[in-house]
TrEMBL record:
Domain Galactofuranosyltransferase GlfT2 N-terminal stretches: 59-172
Lineage: Bacteria, Bacillati, Actinomycetota, Actinomycetes, Mycobacteriales
Enzyme class: transferase
Region entry Disordered, spans: 1-25
Keywords: Glycosyltransferase, Transferase
UniProt organism field: Rhodococcus indonesiensis
Protein name: Glycosyltransferase
One Pfam family, short name: Glyco_tranf_2_3
Pathway: Cell wall biogenesis; cell wall polysaccharide biosynthesis
PANTHER family: GALACTOFURANOSYLTRANSFERASE GLFT2, RHAMNOSYLTRANSFERASE WBBL
InterPro entries for this protein: GlfT2_C, GlfT2_N, Nucleotide-diphossugar_trans
GO terms for MF: glycosyltransferase activity
Family membership noted in the UniProt record: Belongs to the glycosyltransferase 2 family.
Domain Galactofuranosyltransferase-2 C-terminal: 448-631
Source domain of life: Bacteria
Length: 633
């Protein structure tokens, strides 16, 4: 976008300087851009049909589209829709306008959908520039959308041609326009982080309301060594804040951003936008998150959705919740899209989220003042805990459709990894803080998981589960160092289990490629027979009455009831980058079983007392003073 195009967009007010040198919001313009109507994606990897669908002769660019005769475009797409239902439910906005610069002749229609996806035209106008480019504005009420529905634009031509540029949806300016502060947390992903930062810096509209961009670098492969980072740093100038610190995980990295923003006069009352370092960034997400947050009736956490990086048209989940008692996260809310192609289906029904992942998520400064800082959990469930704690304090989380980044597909990450320790341990801590955690029910659930890991020859996974339980029972004092000791220990100790190591599929130690033959799994046992099947598999594993020759098991067939039929299985890693070798080890299985019975018995008995200790320690753990100590401030 050149300077002329940038100037054509409504100014958002920005940030000025007070007499004492501190930053203060400038008076906003009468109307603000809530979201842009973009016509192409930020990368060739992304289908432009996620932004606008076309019929006829149409040339698309990022901010401009040219329609030939008898052609049509519609923004009834993932990024093209205006999520009217969410604006009516959470903000005081009652009217929205579609504004565009046009050159030529045609027709502009605004179309609404309802909660069932049915369409209706709500506004229409003929477009004619009479040979001189002009700006067209079409308004419509934001009403009749409480349970669902969206707005989109339909632009068509007849016998003439039409060019549309710098299109956007605008809303009346809120009384207060808070700037945004973007926080990117990174650990040894220097190239990815530099690319994410560059994507934002190269979009002036996305950065118009951004007061500061913080890069929290916790690795030893520093982002500052990259040429792309140095280029962006010279362009951003004082807007960029680069901080290095020891690795305190995602919790410690993102919290450092909260810590700096809420304690700085340069970002008064800012909306803090978290951004993962390894995403394919859609800079427009910052525009949409920030303006929506500025318009909510009460401060709310506003989250972006996650699209799959390997399958860019698919949305992870429209909104999610967690089952704290069962330690399950990422559960889709009823009626929310989950792992669906946005080219085939849009989210019309409005759904409410329990929390939002921190791949990209906005937290207003007022929320930090009200509920405190995140827990020093290092990694996993820090975002979930913060979302549920905020809701308990009257702060909702809104997962906003059409605001998104592309992130690595979760299904392509193997479950048997070191981070599973933090997933389990931190889930128990979160449940202890926000529910009356039933230790007996949880021990029963984890006992089943333990047995399944053992019969499946996943001894490292069984160890990971037990260490998570044991460390949870150690209590909140174990979080004193922010998780650095635990992160080092789990990686070191898991390495002692051979099946946790990934090998090239054509270079498996001790085996030739011809030694393994794919063995598909049978159907899932009936629920009423699961324990009987598990007991039978355990008995056969104990006796060693199993085929001795190695078999190859696809990732999709690596179920406990199938792998446990063998004593030597080469299982495809979920990442599809290699394989894991599982071998029966009776001695190791017995040792882990005995250790597991002790740990689970302790969990049943000690959960109430340990939960109370976590609740009592939470105010100190989430205090600014505790994080200052961890940051050495």
């Amino acid at each position: 976008m050149d300077k002329a195009e940038f100037a054509a967009i409504e100014p958002t007010g920005g940030v000025g300087t007070a007499a004492d040198g501190s930053s203060v919001p400038e008076r906003p313009a009468a109307r603000q851009t809530a979201q842009r109507a973009l016509f192409a994606g930020p990368s060739p990897l992304v289908s432009d049909d996620m932004y606008v669908t076309v019929k006829g002769t149409v040339d698309r660019e990022r901010t401009r589209v040219r329609l030939g005769r008898r052609s049509r475009i519609e923004t009834d797409t993932y990024f093209g829709r205006f999520p009217a239902s969410y604006w009516q439910r959470w903000t005081a906005v009652t009217e929205v306008a579609f504004v565009a610069e046009v050159d030529g002749d045609g027709r502009l229609e605004l179309v609404a959908t309802d909660a069932r996806g049915r369409r209706r035209i709500v506004a229409t106008t003929a477009v004619s520039s009479n040979g001189t480019p002009t700006t067209v504005t079409v308004s419509t009420p934001v009403d009749r959308f409480v349970d669902g529905g969206a707005l989109f634009a339909r632009i068509s031509t007849g016998s003439g041609e039409l060019t549309v540029a710098n299109a956007r949806w605008t809303v009346p300016a809120p009384k207060t326009l808070r700037p945004a502060a973007v926080v990117i947390c990174t650990f040894n992903r220097a190239d990815d982080c530099a690319a994410t930062l560059a994507a934002m810096a190269d979009d002036p509209i996305a950065l118009a309301d951004v007061q500061s961009v913080y890069v929290i670098d916790q690795g030893n492969d520093r982002v500052e060594t990259r040429e792309e980072f140095r280029r962006v740093a010279s362009e951003l100038g004082d807007k960029l804040v680069y901080i290095t610190q020891p690795n305190l995980g995602g919790a410690g990295g993102f919290t450092r951003g909260l810590y700096e923003v809420t304690g700085s006069a340069r970002n008064p009352g800012a909306n803090i936008v978290f951004m993962d370092d390894d995403v394919l960034c859609e800079p427009e997400a910052v525009v949409r998150l920030n303006m929506f947050a500025n318009c909510t009736v009460e401060p709310a956490i506003v989250g972006a959705q996650m699209l799959y990086l390997l399958h860019p048209d698919r949305v992870h989940v429209g909104a999610e919740v967690a089952d704290l008692q069962r330690l399950q996260a990422g559960l889709e809310v009823k009626n929310a899209l989950a792992d669906k192609s946005t080219l085939k289906k849009q989210q019309d029904i409005r759904v409410d989220a329990g929390y939002n992942g921190w791949w990209s998520c906005l937290i207003p400064s007022e929320v930090v003042d009200k509920v405190g800082y995140p827990l020093p959990l290092f990694f996993q469930w820090d975002d979930i805990e913060y979302g549920y704690r905020s809701r308990a304090n009257g702060v909702a989380t809104v997962t906003l459709p059409g605001a998104a980044v592309w992130h690595a597909d979760f299904a392509w990450k193997d479950w048997d990894e070191w981070h599973r320790y933090f997933n389990l341990r931190n889930a128990m801590i979160t449940a202890a803080l926000h529910t009356e955690l039933d230790g007996k029910a949880l021990a029963k659930q984890l006992r089943t998981d333990l047995f399944r890991y053992l019969v499946s020859m996943q001894y490292g996974m069984a160890f990971t589960l037990l260490k998570a339980v044991e460390d949870f029972l150690r209590g909140p004092e174990f979080l004193h160092d922010g998780g650095m000791e635990a992160a080092a220990a789990i990686r070191r100790e898991r390495a002692e289990y051979g099946e946790t190591i990934r090998h090239d599929a054509n270079n498996v130690p001790g085996l030739r490629p011809a030694d393994m033959f794919i063995t598909p799994a049978g159907p899932h046992p009936r629920k009423s027979l699961e324990w009987a099947v598990l007991a039978k598999r355990a008995l056969n594993q104990w006796r060693g009455r199993l085929p001795a020759h190695p078999v190859a098991v696809p990732s999709s067939d690596a179920h406990w009831w199938h792998v446990s039929l063998f004593s030597h299985a080469v299982v495809t890693d979920a990442s599809q980058e290699g394989v894991r070798v599982r071998k029966r080890d009776k001695k190791r299985a017995v040792a882990l079983l005995r250790r597991g019975m002790r740990a689970l018995q302790a969990l049943k008995q000690e959960t109430p007392a340990v939960s109370l200790r976590y609740r009592e320690a939470a105010p100190q753990l989430t205090s600014r003073e505790n994080w200052a100590r961890l940051y050495g401030r």
